[in-house]
Design brief:
single chain; 22 helices; globular
């Protein structure tokens, strides 16, 4: 926007290293936020951590709103990123720990739907505010201040809601030894009494999972069982280290990290962050037209995620990822061909420019139903129960780190060659399709034991299952389930929705 360019003294007005830095500093902050979140979520609790992240986010927005030069934007976006990264992990974690077991799995795809909805809304807010005070030199500062400041509203609503209406996570209460409070919170969330059999079953499953984690840690690290901060830190450190030192876990970690790498380097956030500049490069008349075309990207990306929410479990993960990748790669190469053919004289080939825009829209649709939600599902399914939380956190970290790399480099790509940018993303996306075909196992409908066989380590899941079964018998879960059946109750599986026990982020 003209007024923003003027406020920052023309810094990053065109695709360049400066523009890449200004864009990517938020992703860098988000990566740091995700790393800090693991400790904060356990130390402060899920609810307090979410409130703290909202406060940090709001501080970052205020700093940006007070901009008088580029340094305010750099500092504000980094601080905002800290909040975004923390919230991207803590909110889905909190939701999954409060949600009834039967809907936890659906939250994975719904989360991606919410993300794409937010992206769509942000695109159209930017398009609308671009007209405040005109689109030229007389444009009002409100044109860029409104999109920045409006972010405070959902942060305030989230923080107030967490403080005033939402309980502490039952899982966190169990981790802190507050079993009675955990049971009360579960009963309140389900709208029944603490004597309800379904609530008692869910409570015992949470207790069983907590004991499973404690027993697993004691087996692996008997020398670090004194409960001190140092011992807990070492247990966490060596668990993370085993993700790369154990051959089977390394394969799983490679799948989780690489699927996130290809998700980012297929070009989706290059489009999301730099679409107006990309569309300008297609010869569209005026920045306003480019913003309008960008808004359509958001609509298509959001709309394509809806069928993924409804039907993702009816198709294999591999087939969806491969189909999406081939569709996106085809769009990249067609766009590159159009640029190569007509970029020397867009004025004489306006139709060609709009055809390129249409293929960007088709590209966004292909991403929306495939790599957007399905990449996260694959990450959630490849790890054994005892390593799932840490494995997913590594996958999430890979997502933000690659997001940062894409954001900082794409502006240079565009400045150097719009044609080369799409060729590059097309090649990477094609490689991603081949990698999925040859190296990613189909995870749909696989048991944890079958996943062990796929990754060459028979015994991981079997040992986990035996440990979990013994705990469930010892704490009376099986007895309660049997009693529920005898009295006509709706009994639940002790392994209730294992695959969605740990939530995912975006």
């Amino acid at each position: 926007m003209t007024s923003f360019v003027n406020r920052t003294q023309g810094y990053a007005a065109v695709p360049s290293v400066a523009q890449g830095l200004l864009t990517s500093v938020l992703e860098l902050g988000a990566w740091v936020g995700t790393l800090a979140n693991g400790y904060l979520a356990d130390a402060l609790g899920r609810r307090k951590t979410a409130v703290l992240a909202c406060i940090i986010f709001i501080v970052g927005v205020i700093v940006q709103a007070c901009t008088v030069n580029k340094n305010y934007i750099f500092a504000g976006r980094f601080v905002t990123g800290l909040g975004v990264g923390s919230l991207s992990m803590i909110v889905p974690l909190y939701n999954a720990e409060l949600a009834p077991p039967e809907v936890r799995g659906s939250l994975v795809a719904v989360q991606q739907l919410a993300i794409t909805f937010g992206i769509m809304i942000s695109f159209w807010i930017g398009y609308g505010t671009n007209f405040i005070g005109g689109t030229g030199e007389g444009q009002s500062n409100a044109a860029w201040l409104v999109p920045i400041c409006i972010q405070i509203l959902p942060a305030i609503v989230l923080a107030a809601g967490m403080l005033l209406f939402m309980p502490q996570s039952p899982r966190h209460l169990m981790n802190c030894g507050q079993e009675a409070e955990c049971l009360k919170v579960l009963a309140r969330l389900r709208g029944v009494t603490v004597d309800n059999i379904l609530v008692r079953i869910e409570f015992l499953e949470i207790k069983a999972l907590r004991q499973f984690e404690v027993i697993t840690a004691a087996k692996r690290y008997p020398q670090y069982q004194d409960g001190s901060f140092g011992s807990r830190f070492k247990i966490g450190f060596y668990d993370y280290l085993s993700l790369v030192t154990n051959k089977s876990l390394l394969k799983r970690t490679a799948v989780a990290c690489l699927v996130m790498t290809f998700q980012q380097w297929n070009g989706i956030n290059a489009i999301n962050y730099y679409a107006p500049f990309i569309f300008d490069g297609f010869g569209l008349s005026g920045h306003t037209t480019s913003l309008l075309a960008t808004g359509v990207v958001g609509i298509l990306e959001f709309g394509a995620t809806i069928p993924a929410v409804l039907w993702v479990d009816q198709f294999g993960r591999k087939s969806i990822l491969i189909a999406g990748a081939l569709g996106m790669a085809t769009c990249h190469f067609i766009i590159a061909a159009i640029i190569g053919s007509f970029s020397s004289d867009w004025a004489a080939h306006r139709a060609g420019g709009w055809v390129a825009v249409v293929f960007v829209w088709i590209y966004a649709f292909n991403f929306g139903y495939s790599w957007g939600p399905v990449a996260w599902i694959v990450v959630s399914e490849v790890f054994p129960l005892s390593m799932r939380a840490k494995g997913i956190s590594i996958g999430g970290s890979s997502n933000w780190l690659n997001n940062f790399a894409v954001a900082i480099s794409t502006s240079d790509f565009i400045a150097a060659s719009n044609f080369g940018t799409f060729i590059f993303f097309g090649i990477i996306t094609t490689i991603g399709a081949a990698w999925v075909y040859f190296f990613v196992p189909e995870t749909k409908g696989r048991t944890l034991e079958e996943m062990d066989e796929l990754f060459g380590s028979v015994g991981f899941a079997a040992e986990d299952a035996l440990t979990k079964e013994k705990i469930e018998r010892d704490i009376g879960l099986y007895a309660l389930l049997t009693d529920g059946d005898d009295n006509g109750g709706a009994a639940l599986s002790p392994a209730m929705n294992e695959k969605s026990e740990v939530p995912l982020t975006g």
